[in-house]
Amino acid sequence: MDWISIIIGIIVGLISSTIYGLILGQYNIWRKFIPTNLRKSISWEFKNQKCAEKSIIKDINRSKTMKVFTLKCSTFCDKHVKYDTIYKALHKNDINIKQKYLVSSIENPYISIRAKELNESLNVFKNGIREVIEHLSDEKKNVRNGNTDYRLHNEVVRFRLIIFDENLYLSYQSSNSVGRESPMQRYPKGSSGYCALEAYFDELWDKYEVFKG
After folding, report:
1. I need a surface site. Which of 41, 48, 52, 170 has the fewest CB within 10 A?
2. Is the CB of residue 153 less than 8 Å from the CB of residue 206?
3. What does DSSP say about strands 65-69 and 98-104: parallel, antiparallel, or unpaired?
4. Are 169 and 161 in contact (CB under 8 A)?
5. What is the pTM of this model?
6. How many CB atoms lie within 10 A of CB 59?
7. How confident is residue 92, by pLDDT bands cut at 50, 70 and 90?
8. Can you tell me the distance from the alpha carbon of 128 to that of 170, in angstroms, rounded to the nearest whole number?
9. Residue 129, CA atoms < 13 Å, CB-side half-sphere
10. DSSP-H helix ranges across the chain
11. 117: closest CA among 129, 107, 125?
12. Is 212 helix (H, G, I), strand (E, B) or coil?
């Protein structure tokens, strides 16, 4: 085999691996070269929430709304993650983002299942949710903020949703790790994933309008 054939083989291999990487969402650096109308069908995957942090904070800074569906909501509660960069980004003085949280009620039967999966005491798990609810209640009453609302749900939670104006983030709740440690996918607005999951959130929000937990 001559050198020209070897070089051609290498080039073809690199092009193929790049295309494959784009399909899997591994090479975000190429996203800016993709036409806007094609970006709507492409999702990206991060190893965990920490890896998605910069992208999430970018959405916090440019969005007017944020919707969250979760079990415990510890990512957004200062009593659990006081020094978390996502929490800090939400509470900067120049941020004015309307926040909606769907958080599990204390009476949700799924809580006992989740606590067992994570090998946590049920009472400790429930107390964590109580602290989150108290925190969100204080945020809702905060005159300076005035943009926080929450409702309690009784749903089985096998994934978390964080929805912004331009992107939606989904992370699976595996049976042996908390959601923020699981892989996180990002769906752009206009994609089928974004549209379906936002509709799911909105339906639950309406469903639990008068639910007191």
Report:
1. 41
2. no
3. parallel
4. yes
5. 0.77
6. 22
7. confident
8. 22
9. 27
10. 3-24, 36-39, 49-62, 85-90, 110-117, 122-141, 192-207
11. 125
12. coil
Backbone Cα Rg of the chain: 20
Which residue carries 């107390």 as its tokens? Answer: 127
Q: Is residue 111 a contact partner of residue 129, using CB atoms and an 8 Å limit?
A: yes
Residue 116 neighbours by CB under 8 Å, 6+ apart: 122
DSSP letters spanning 172-189? E--TTS-GGGS-EEEEET
Least Cα distance to 102 among 205, 210, 19 occurs for 205
- Consecutive H or E run containing 1: none
Query: Any idea what DSSP says for residue 203?
Result: H
Whether residue 129 has pLDDT greater than 60: yes
Q: What are phi and psi of 45, to 5 degrees?
A: -120, 135
Kind and range of the H or E run holding 69: strand 65-69
Q: Report, as an integer, the average pLDDT of 104-130.
A: 89
Looking at residue 139, its amino acid is E
> Quick one: tokens of 62?
């440019």
116: how many CB neighbours lie within 10 A of its CB? Answer: 12
Asked whether the predicted pLDDT for residue 161 surpasses 70, the reply is: yes
